[in-house]
């Protein structure tokens, strides 16, 4: 009973930290529109995968997140701590799915519109400083992402010390859970690549760099650095 009480207390503290955010939510989350057509990322990612990934998988995370938050707010109104704790994992998982995919869509752009092109600037300088070249960075990201056991994400992040970092997260966990700011995410769930690459996920990891929207990644980097300086 003592162990159970301690576990509940820990979870309750996590809920309490997030309740100020959840308590202010009165509008439902929605799936963001894409900035490009479903077929723009071909042949790297097919229109079929994009439509399924965006319209079905992301939409499911959003629907489940809205339901979980409504139930959480109802439990909160009743001061039902156990009920809030029971919903925490659903909010974390579906909320992470929503946030991670929202970043992912922005991280992508077709080759004809600049995909894969890293221009001069602070981010490129930092990549060269820490990794030597963009090619070296991509090898690090691909290596760590390919090593994920099960489902998850590979990330280029800015860590709390202001350095670039390559990390992985399981399932739909977010880099913010370990204090990192996400700059670039690579979805390593099977639904992100299987229809195009079958079980050869390393080809997906290799090819996705052709459609990375480095302008978006660079802006995230600049914004994150500015936040640290402030």
UniProtKB/TrEMBL annotation:
Domain of life: Eukaryota
Top EC group: oxidoreductase
EC number: 1.15.1.1
Keywords annotated in UniProt: Oxidoreductase
Name of the protein described by the UniProt record: Superoxide dismutase [Mn], mitochondrial
Organism (species): Kickxella alabastrina
């Amino acid at each position: 009973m003592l162990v159970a009480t301690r576990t509940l207390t820990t979870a309750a503290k996590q809920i309490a930290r997030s309740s100020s955010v959840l308590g202010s939510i009165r509008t439902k989350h929605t799936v963001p529109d894409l900035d490009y057509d479903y077929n723009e990322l071909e042949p790297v990612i097919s229109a079929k995968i994009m439509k399924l990934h965006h319209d079905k998988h992301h939409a499911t995370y959003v629907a489940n997140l809205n339901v979980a938050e409504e139930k959480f707010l109802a439990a909160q109104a009743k001061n039902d701590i156990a009920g809030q704790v029971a919903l925490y994992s659903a909010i974390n998982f579906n909320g992470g799915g929503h946030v991670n995919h929202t970043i992912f869509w922005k991280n992508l752009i077709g080759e004809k519109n600049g995909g894969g092109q890293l221009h001069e600037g602070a981010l490129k300088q930092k990549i060269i400083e820490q990794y030597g070249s963009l090619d070296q960075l991509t090898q690090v990201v691909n290596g760590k992402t390919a090593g994920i056991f099960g489902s998850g994400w590979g990330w280029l992040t800015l860590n709390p010390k202001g350095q670039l970092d390559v990390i992985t997260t399981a399932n739909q966990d977010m880099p913010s859970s370990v204090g990192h700011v996400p700059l670039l995410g690579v979805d390593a769930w099977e639904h992100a690549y299987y229809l195009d690459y079958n079980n050869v996920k390393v080809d997906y990891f290799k090819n996705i760099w052709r459609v990375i929207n480095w302008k978006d990644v660079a802006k995230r980097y600049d914004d994150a650095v500015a936040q640290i300086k402030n």
